[in-house]
Amino acid sequence: MKQNSKTRFFTPLMVVWGLLISFMLMTTACNTKDAAVTSGIDLANLDTTALPGTDFYQYACGGWMKNNPLTGEYSRFGSFDKLAENNREQLKGLIEEIASKPADKGTVAQKIADMYNLAMDSVKLNADGIEPIKVDLQNIGNIKNVSDILKIIPTLSVEGLDTYFAVYVAADPMNSTMNIVQTYQSGISLGQRDYYLDNDEHTKMIREKYKEHVLKMFKLVGFSEEIAQKDMASVMKIETRLAKAAYDKVKLRDPHANYNLMTVADLQKLVPEINWNDYLVSLGLKDIKQISVSQKESLVEVGKIIATEPIADQIAYLQWKLIDSAAEYLSDEIYAQNFDFYGKTLSGKKEQSPRWKRAVSNVDGVLGEAVGQMYVKKYFPPAAKERMLKLVTNLQTSLGDRINALTWMGDSTKIKANEKLKAFIVKIGYPDKWRDYSSLEIDKKSYYGNIKRANKFETDYLFAKAGKKVDKTEWQMTPQTVNAYYDPSTNEICFPAGILQYPFFDMNADDAFNYGAIGVVIGHEMTHGFDDQGCQYDKEGNLKNWWTADDKKHFDERTAGLATFFDSIEVAPGVYGNGKFTLGENIADQGGLHVSFQAFKKATEASPLETKDGFTPEQRFFLAYSNVWAGNIRPEEILQRTKSDPHSLGKWRVDGALPQVDAWYDAFGIKKSDPMFVAPEKRVSIW
After folding, report:
1. pLDDT tens by residue, 602-658
2. Is domain 23-29+37-92+367-433+473-682 in CATH 1.20.1050.40, yes or no?
């Protein structure tokens, strides 16, 4: 789960993460023989005044929501956020112990200590003020012509600024064994194009507040009211042009529409305003012959913007991108204004996170695997890795059985689907080899200076992969991350150590709980390999069709029904879900439920479980699943996530997913008269 924050540790890397099909996940599944086996269900999480067939989310999670009210620093707080808080406390202990001791220069300990101590030193940050960005502001201000713009953009990009567009390196979708250079639309500070284009009252309010924010930030770094007003208008003009040319969030989910491999010579013809050979060399990418232009129309517009917008307007835009990127690492006054817009206005938060939390998160972001090594050594039991592998195997078997039993899929496609399933790479806990941070320089001089060097360190690391074979042993998340992912280009599922613990897995609970919680989420990640995006990649991770025409038609008809169902959900007064945007995650939720429930029934077939705490095993399965998504969320965050998050809101991952599952109706006796009832012929069954 990616928090709503303006923290940026290397923009191109964020693009790669954005292309992963990622989602908050879970852990292992074995019962201990020495402890009494429990139901795993915390009865305090329930709200038994609610009716299961009317609002199952409230019924299963209402108690949790009452007992875990939102604090000021959160716009959304759920089960996984609670676990992330626990993990952060553990990281704090590890980091503070290191930061309290002297360390030899160049060691990981020295780098952790200096980063953390600088982040905690409010006196120095406030005394430094805007000094850390003065030189960069002046360098941008000295731009005289387009040639100067093209020279400075690569420098700013490798230091973490998302100007105009992004360049990154990742697996070639058509040849997944090799890394290639790719471009991606970028450059808009509000993240989503809809904020610049939609005209509903809430979006217009956000736009006006954003303008006020940009104006205030320019003034905070020393610009006069008159210049700040003019520069704010320039920022809005350029960012709006970028937004208009950008693909919308649904089109971005179409891998074929976002793959355009061409020679650098052809790119030069497509976007002649940029000297591409010089640009790539400036990034450290030499001898590049081919490049994939992910959104051609957007990049064409970038060329026109650079060539036609007045130099003064582009200076304002680039200076804004610098201010926006650096705000989190400067004085308290600047940070407060940054939080006022991105935290309060956009997300509905009431107060900043404590300084130590921000410091720990930033050290974690810069030196992730170094911190991860310490974390797993102290907090991750080695035995959990083996248990997790066994559970994954059980879920793979269940998904294979379901594929073989599908009535809408032909035999030839089933063979290909099973080949892909068996080819999954499974990563659990932590990587077998760790990152080397020896070339990353961290000092005691400037917090923001360290962030710049860290961004460049990550950029260099990523760009060094260009033209080389994909390393399928590499991880896309750190071990301490409370999350998980499926990557279609490597056909891998990954479950970091940070998520492999209660409440997603309970060693003392029976299979009903563990299959309902972690089992579903493992099944979710597996199903991503067969959702509307993942199904377009073969077992090797190549964007290659392996379906017959009839089978793909049947699949598309079924997924269209699921998209329509989620389109009809009113997430806020007058605001509806986007079924096409959230389709991949909704398919995976549904698949995870079916696959894990079947695996659960098979695992307990010989020794059926008893009713515990007043609930049958089947009921506990669905309660455990629902509690994974227990959480509270602010109205502002609902609106923001509906625009930007490919996952449905937590409530609808329960109340939208369960009505499609026949076993849920049987478990809770849901009747036609119940509001959540969906007629059997209208229920969507895919995997």
Report:
1. 999 999 999 999 999 999 999 999 999 999 999 999 999 999 999 999 999 999 999
2. no
525 and 51 Cβ atoms separated by less than 8 Å:
no
Q: What is the mean pLDDT of the chain?
A: 93
Q: Which residue has the tokens 């009747």?
A: 671
Q: Helices (H) and strands (E) in the chain — how many of each?
A: 29, 12
How far apart, in whole angstroms, are the C-alpha atoms of residue 142 and residue 145?
9
* pLDDT mean over 141-161: 97
Taking the CA atoms of the chain, what radius of gyration do you get in angstroms? 25
Q: How many angstroms separate the CA atoms of 678 and 652, rounded?
A: 15
Residue 342 token pair: 């991105």
What b/e string do you get for 172-185 counting C-beta neighbours within 10 Å, with b at 16 or more?
Answer: bbebbeebbbbbbb
Interatomic CA distance for residues 329 and 342, integer angstroms: 15
The token pair that represents 591 in the structure block: 């698949």
**E-strand stretches of 342-405:** none
Q: Which of 340, 368, 332, 318 is nearest to 112 (CA)?
A: 368
Name the strand (E) or helix (H) holding 46.
Answer: none
User: Over 50: is that where the pLDDT of 25 sits?
Assistant: no
Q: Is the pLDDT of residue 2 over 80?
A: no
Neighbour tally for 111: CB within 10 Å: 25
Domain ranges of the chain: 23-29+37-92+367-433+473-682, 145-329
User: Is residue 184 within 8 Å of 166, Cβ to Cβ?
Assistant: yes
Structure token pair of residue 65: 């929501």
pLDDT value of residue 586: 97
pTM (two decimals):
0.92
| Secondary structure element (H or E) that encloses residue 485, with its range | strand 484-487
CATH superfamily entry for domain 145-329: Neutral endopeptidase , domain2 (1.10.1380.10)
Contact assessment for residue 70 and residue 634, using Cβ atoms and an 8 Å cutoff: yes
Q: What are phi and psi of 408, to 5 degrees?
A: -95, -5
Angstrom distance (rounded) from CA 103 to CA 629: 42
Q: With contact defined as beta carbons under 8 Å apart, do 600 and 621 qualify?
A: yes
Cα angle for residues 593, 596, 598 (degrees, 5° grid): 105
d(CA 513, CA 519): 9
- The model's pLDDT over 152-201, given as tens digits with 9 standing for 90+, comes to 999 999 999 999 999 999 999 999 999 999 999 999 999 999 999 999 99
* Interacting residues of 278 by C-beta distance below 8 A, sequence separation 6+: 150
Cis preceding-peptide flag for 154 (omega within 30 of 0): no
What distances in angstroms separate CA 366 from CA 6, 116, 121, 423, 454, one per listed residue? 15, 11, 18, 33, 6
Stated as kind and residue range, the H or E segment containing 414 is helix 411-422
Strand-strand pairing, 290-293 and 175-185: parallel
Query: What does the buried/exposed string (b/e) look like for 233-257 if buried means 16 or more CB atoms within 10 Å of the residue's CB?
Result: ebbbbbbbbbbebbbebeebbebee
